[in-house]
Automatic annotation (TrEMBL):
Alphabetical list of Pfam families matching this protein: Phage_Mu_Gp36
Taxonomic lineage from the root: unclassified sequences, metagenomes, ecological metagenomes
Organism: marine sediment metagenome
Record's protein name: DUF1320 domain-containing protein
Length: 140
């Protein structure tokens, strides 16, 4: 189970339809929470690897909103990559911004507090998520 986030936090950046398409290997209609949790855990590990250079990790919970945003954004990218689909440009850009922000933290250039955001942290609107259709989703 993720430490900094909850499975439901992924729905702040992806619609349930897209999460199902990215995690259901059978027909793309049911969310596989095991894959979501795995992506969140791996994303938390990445966050810890950067933040741990200047802060004691794991961070005390509940963590700041900026950390939750970083974790779910990285997990979002991992779910797209898991599906072997092309990552939409806006998603890739969000991941790059989060990674740059984490690098700044690691270099002691950014102090953690609730006011810190990732370049005005972009949260995808559920209706604007690109649909994911791949042969793997539908078993072709």
């Amino acid at each position: 189970m993720p430490t900094y986030t909850a499975t439901a936090d992924i729905y702040n950046v992806l619609s349930s339809k897209i999460v199902a398409q990215l995690t259901d290997d059978t027909n793309g209609t049911e969310v596989n929470t095991d894959f979501v949790d795995d992506a969140l855990e791996r994303a938390e590990s990445i966050v810890d690897s950067y933040v741990g250079k200047v802060y004691s990790v794991p961070l005390s919970t509940p963590v700041e909103k900026s950390i939750v945003h970083a974790v779910v954004t990285l997990a979002k990218c991992m779910l797209y990559r898991r599906r072997n689909s092309t990552i939409p440009d806006e998603v890739e850009s969000e991941c790059e911004k989060v990674t740059e922000w984490l690098k700044e933290i690691a270099a002691s250039g950014v102090e953690l507090d609730d006011e810190v955001t990732t370049d005005d942290a972009i949260v995808a609107e559920q209706n604007n998520d690109p649909e994911v259709f791949t042969a793997q989703v539908f078993g072709r």
